[in-house]
Design a protein that fits this description.
2 copies of one chain form a homodimer.
Chain A (H helix, E strand, L loop, with lengths): L3 E4 L2 E2 L5 H8 L8 E9 L4 E8 L1 H18 L15 E10 L3 H19 L3 E5 L10 H5 L2 H8 L21 E5 L4 E7 L4 H11 L9 E8 L4 E8 L7 H12 L6 E7 L4 H14 L10 H12 L10 H8 L1
Parallel strand pairs in A: 5-7, 6-7
Antiparallel strand pairs in A: 1-4, 1-5, 2-4, 2-5, 3-4, 8-10, 8-11, 9-10
Helix pairs in contact in A: 1-2, 2-3, 6-7, 8-9
Chain lengths: 324, 324
């Protein structure tokens, strides 16, 4: 069986499309993997890039991509809603088929070493690849962001796993790691009041007493003029999408705020959508089977979970079918 | 200012009212504190006893109460829905007014020593009084229950804080500790299917990925012929009552199960009720102020949170007013 991973580099540039094109160029038209998408977000000033395919073929193009990011991004001038600490902010390897999480850890270390050696960028290993339990959680590493890392990296507790204890002065630092599929999910609120979005985020996130596998915060979308609860779902089996959607809806009622829609950032495993849809299908007594088409799933997800800007190509399995 | 604590011994007898009377006898008509209530539960075969008042005056009567429990309960014949490990299963001291949590820890240790010395019952200190972090969580200590403790207590990790590593053969073992107010809260489901109650409990409890301060499980109420999600809310500020009530309602929809009502076991701080009511009052645009009467609060709680068997005497502050 072919080895297939998903690799999702995030870069700290979401506005200058010309720069973004130059940075992703090395990831295009390669043998063995596909550049599935890159999604610039102006408010976040960040682009999430998704690769799917054989990890052995990804490493060298990824090093070239780091070099382009180094050439085109100066973090000293970066502003955006999303927390960030480097020009390439984070690179996770995610096992999809024929590859274990441990193998993904090896790919992460291999990439980290090559990037550090050739470009002198300090690297933290995170998630399953972390060298200490303090470093499992990306927000913990990233706390202080680019500006704060200048001092933080000198603290022996926060010396990088690769490189000197000193940030790259324009690039910053990067986290590279391996993890099970994570879902980046945002819920759109019909209010511009960031305090309400924050209060709602606190009802679900672990750090404020909420669900074990939820990281969440508020965001204001300048472009659209409304707020979101923006979250990472770290384990969609234990904290399914629909539960967050329904709970934010319920909590928002007291503020007279409505949930307008929601969005998946990047890709999502079919299983995660399926597990959420059946909540609604059961409730409405609609028959279903596990093998419903991706198109059928997509149309249910739009109807019941209010997904916007969603089509079946956002489901990981769509691209695997395509590769084989 | 007078020292006021709430002390809530739980005994493993909820059916034989004659025995229960004899056991609680030493707690009646004392100077300095009141026996506010004792609530036998036949399904749980357990009685929750609530004392409010000066802890200095409680210790000797509590030792006499342990002696009565020892005389009248043989755990080898005990059956009930609620997990248990001793004739007196657990005794928490809870700070209410003019007393710190640290002082409550001292009262717990004082009682533990006297009970062990005079009755040879092994005692575990738990919650804030715990000697190790493993012992903070009561269900962790109690795992295995009366039957399993016979072996578990011999494991050096689980030697008791007071007494020999050997259970009392008819009494079992007891946990004594100090903690902030905890709310014992149950949600009534219109189904007799315990699997559904269990699935619903798992959506909210910490150990299955749910909320940080929720312990929950399923229970079948023989007497009433329906199930409950039964829970402890360990921090009602971070995980308020209304959130559990609304979430169980939401999750139950997929199984065509309705939430019929809910119940507070023991007492509840006024602040916990207030924080939940304002969710509904805000939503319905009903004006309110912090100083609404306990009667007003009670009627809202019955209306919006479906409390059954509830009146203002279940609010802790009702009894404090009464003492002073």
């Amino acid at each position: 069986m072919n080895k297939i991973v998903q690799c999702v580099p995030n870069i700290s540039e979401g506005r200058d499309l010309d720069k973004i094109e130059k940075i992703v160029q090395p990831l295009k038209n390669n043998k063995g993997f596909k550049l599935v998408s890159y999604e610039p977000d102006q408010d976040y000033n960040r682009t999430v890039i998704t690769l799917i395919g054989n990890p052995d073929d990804m490493i060298d193009p990824l090093v070239a991509f780091f070099k382009e990011a180094l050439n085109h991004i100066d973090m000293n001038h970066h502003k955006g809603e999303h927390p960030r600490m480097g020009a390439v902010d984070v690179v996770p390897f995610i096992p999809i088929e024929g590859v274990s999480i441990d193998e993904c850890v090896s790919y992460a270390k291999n990439l980290a070493e090559k990037v550090n050696t050739s470009l002198d960028i300090p690297i933290y290993l995170y998630a399953q690849a972390a060298s200490t339990s303090d470093r499992e959680n990306l927000p913990t590493i990233r706390k202080g962001e680019f500006e704060g890392m200048k001092e933080k990296i000198k603290d022996p507790t926060w010396n990088p796993d690769y490189g000197k204890p000193q940030i790259h002065e324009t690039f910053g630092v990067t986290a590279i790691g391996a993890r099970i599929p994570l879902i980046a999910y945002n819920i759109d609120l019909d209010t511009d009041d960031l305090d309400i979005a924050k209060t709602l985020a606190k009802t679900i996130r672990k750090s404020s007493g909420g669900f074990q596998y939820i990281q969440a915060g508020p965001a204001y979308l300048e472009e659209k003029g409304h707020t979101q609860v923006t979250m990472n779902i770290l384990d969609y089996k234990k904290n399914p999408i629909y539960r967050m959607y329904e709970m934010i809806h319920m909590e928002a009622l007291r503020y007279n705020v409505k949930v307008m829609s929601s969005e998946i950032v990047g890709l999502v495993p079919k299983d995660a959508i399926y597990r959420s849809l059946i909540y609604y299908l059961d409730m409405h007594h609609i028959a279903y089977d596990k093998h419903m088409s991706l198109n059928q799933m997509t149309s249910y997800a739009i109807k019941y979970l209010g997904f916007r800007d969603f089509d079946s190509s956002k489901i990981i399995e769509y691209h695997i079918e395509d590769l084989s």
